Amino acid sequence: MVKFTSFVVEDNSLALDMLVNDLSNYHKEIEVIGTAKSVIEAAKLLQQKQPDILFLDIMLGDGTGFDLLEIFPNLKSKIIFVTASDEYAIRAFKFAAIDYILKPYSNDDLSSSIQKVKQQIEPQKEQLNILKEAINNQNSILNRISLYTQDKIIIVNTDEIIRCQSDNNYTTFYLKDASKILVSKTLKYYADLLKNNGFIRVHQSHLINKLEIKEYIKSDGGYIILNNNTNIPVSVRKKADVINFLKSI
Question: Among 67, 76, 79, 238, whose Cα sits 20 to 30 Å from the Cα of 4?
């Protein structure tokens, strides 16, 4: 069995003890060699030794997990983020396409995150920047999104997205530069994620940027013509949403 060392950084004593116990009881290949409840405590630990895995809570008593990462910009440890069930924080993680453990977590959640760490799946610096900006500016609209393709991660400005189209459990993004990006998540996932960014789902298979709407044609069942002259069908139950939006312009 391959052994991994780890630190747990968590400011809630109960949550800290629970995670340490879960690792000890169910993930014996993960050895906890240090714990901390604050940025300062964690920084002192990391100055002495860097573990294979760092379990890092986002919100700490004396700062955030990002403060710790700024102190150690060349940190070699794999990071498993831990966050409370805050709606905005969850949304930020999804925009950045970074995995996280949501408190209270299940053992399946913990096992999944550990497995990804073992496979050396780690976020890019740009993804961490998106996450940091989102957490630090909770009243702002998130305008950058990480799209996780089969072989790479692409950072996209949301205003560059013309539309998204469903293909079963996959979604294709169509961008203003005429490029396409295929992502292995459902259209519903992105419809929920982008609803505050001016996107509207007009059909079971189509999500569009409202600013890209040029015309709505009522005949032939109803369809939208986008600025690039693409025709997008509008489902019967979505017609009212489309018409209300066009009236509000």
Answer: 67
